[in-house]
Amino acid sequence: MLGLRRNLAPAEMPKGWKMPNPDTTPEPGRLPFEFTGEGSEYFRIAVVNLLLSIVTLGIYSAWARVRTLNYFYGNTRVAGSTFSFLASPIAILKGRLLVVGVLVGFTVLGNLVSPWFLAAFVVVLIAGLPWLVVRAARFRAVNTAWRNVRFNFHGTMGGAARAFLLWPIFALLTLWILHPLELRAQRKYLVPGHGYGTSRFTFDSDPGPFFGAFFGSVGIAILAFVGVLFLVLVPVSLVMVAIFMGSGGEDGLLGGSSDPGPIATVIGQFVGIGSVAFSALAAQSWFQSRMFNITYRGSRLGEHGFEANMTALGFFRIASVNLVLIVLTLGIFFPFAQVRLARYKAECLALCPHGQLDDFVADETARGRCFRR
Amino acid sequence: MINIRGNWFDGRSSRQTPATLRVAGSGDCSLHVGDRVYRGRIRDWSVSPRLGDTPRRLTLATGEALETTDNDAVDRMLAEVGERSGGHRRHAFVHMLENRWGTVVLMVAATALIVWLFVSYGMPALTQGLADAIPGEFIQGSDEQSLAMLDGLFFEDSRLNQARQDDLRERLLAATPDLYLPVNIEFRRGGNVVGANALALHGGTILFTDELVELAGNDEQLQAIYGHELGHLEHRHALRRVIQNSLINAVLIFVLGDASGIPDLVGGEVFGLADLAWTRELEREADDYALAYMHERDLAPQHFADALKRLECSHRTEPGDDHASEEFLACLDEESGWEDDDFQWTFYLSTHPATSERIERFTNPQTDPSRARP
Description:
The complex is a heterodimer. An eleven-stranded antiparallel β-sheet of chain A has the order 2-12-11-10-9-8-7-6-5-4-3. The longest helix of chain A has 39 residues, at 208-246. Chain A has helices at residues 2-7, 39-55, 61-74, 89-112, 116-142, 157-173, 179-193, 208-246, 261-298, 312-328, 334-347, 364-369; strands spanning 8-10, 31-32, 34-35, 76-78, 81-85, 144-146, 149-153, 194-196, 199-203, 299-301, 304-308, 349-352. By secondary structure, chain A is an alpha+beta fold. Chain A has twelve helices and twelve strands. Chain B is of the alpha+beta class. Chain B is 53% helix and 15% strand. Chain B is built from 14 helices and eleven strands. Chain B has helices spanning 71-80, 86-99, 101-133, 136-139, 144-153, 162-174, 191-194, 210-215, 219-234, 237-256, 262-296, 302-316, 326-333, 355-363, and strands at residues 2-9, 17-23, 28-33, 36-41, 45-47, 56-60, 65-68, 156-157, 184-189, 198-200, 205-209. In chain B, the strands form two sheets. A seven-stranded antiparallel β-sheet of chain B has the order 4-3-2-1-7-6-5. In chain B, helix 10 runs antiparallel to helix 11 (262-296) and helix 12 (302-316) runs antiparallel to helix 14. The longest helix of chain B has 35 residues, at 262-296. Chains A and B meet through helix 1, strand 1, helix 2, helix 3 and strand 5 of A and strand 3, strand 4, helix 2, helix 3 and helix 5 of B.
């Protein structure tokens, strides 16, 4: 309570004052997450972020990043409290300048002087990947707080190298058959690496669900594509053939051309892109919803668990409407889409406390070790 | 006196306690946590900027925080105690922009305008400036790797006999003006993907495909095409493209990066379409150069028109092995009959200006303003 004494002169401080007695009523068994943001509100924030970023030649984008994350954190509520993002925009700006500098340098050198620079860049990128993973995770965690207590990340570089370099290579060598184990290894590295205050997260999950998530999505992609092919592509082609060939040249339905080429090609492309997008979205919906559930259900924070019940159909409803509206509005809908998705994710998640949520103790090293300001 | 109700967090534990901060106009404040009261000065607190309706944090330097959803009370308090630091003014300005639909509509329009200006004027000027600043010695001969890559992707070794290659190379190099970097001429077989074509790489290499050499009616036509490629080289078009591609990534990541995510989706498309329009501009520039080049060397502009017509006809018909099929010859004889047919609509999505338009410039160079060039 040192800080209080220094900043606030206590009026009538009784000897050995302390915080009021903690509320000893037990927490209810299931505390749902809740997202209270509004698309129309976030849209205005996103537009201002975009314009100020452009006008300031990108300088503001670091502040924009902090504002965006804070909007989503500040509107995500569990057990009556919201999250906050405490990073300094200056730190983000420095990081971004570094990334852009390296990127421009290597591309210009690679394109103009010798492609070996590009090769060198890839090597540097791969070698630096574990460092990047650890640094990014720690930056994000240390600057995220709930109830004024920060999260933390303790993962090691060695662990990151195993999960994000060796496992992907290994999975590739097995022709991605073991890709589910790679996904599991990455969660087994990331989740227990995180802490909240002095408490640690743990992760426990069987390999089975990971295989179900991955191969289920592959199967759905194939089924959806074949289905679309027979239910949409074939009928559409037949109809087009009827229109262009059957109507006999000059009097064609779409105006005078006896050449079906250009228009048929355009329609064909739209239908083709649409069916590929549909299949991809269906597969993604299955994969994303499964992974969401596996990740949260397997995670524990100390004694507290999580409940996650996202469904593939629910995700598909949100994502497909988002996609269609984003395309139709040429991107204007994007901020609304982000809010819709955030709200849906929060709806699917709950905290299952086991005992008090008031007893987490801040990790005093979390802030001092890095990124103070 | 303004009361700000919220939750008090000591920063040492996750315990939350209802609390009220009472602030007087003088800047004195008192914090009421439970039945205890602490007094201090409001300037010792830092107040987080307003962001939509998310909770505000009033923090002490030692890490304790009061979190409140009463945003209006915090704003009133800041106004009352006369908080005028630069940071608060900036944040209040940003919130003012975000909070009014009128300014938001204006900002959407301004964003669209700026993006359009940048894509159509800023980017070309920027790449041109950078390309012009690069000395020829720095990039001459740097095509080796690009060429190796193209060889791997598209080309096979040339099947023209060596004497023909040497002869043509000698003839073209003899007819090469002084450029900012030396020219190197290569021959390759284009195959099904590339076919009859010529291209200029940024490091001074001009490449002809066998198919083009075979298609050309005579060497004057090849020299005319060479003039066009020299134009690409002298105006540093390939160099500009390389620079632009490097810049687009950087610009998108840095300026637009994660400002909102919109540009990730739309940005690529905007640049893609602008790129095509820009490419047509470059082709016109190279045509201008070819026209001046041919005039300087007393080469009839008709040769370029003929070469273009043969190219176009080879796309429209089956020219046959020795370019003598009836169909092909008929197409060549046709008096520009296909100039204004239904292929025009693809103009907006094509990289080159309409062929008929280009042919016209070389058939009647007197009517063309760029003829005035030396």
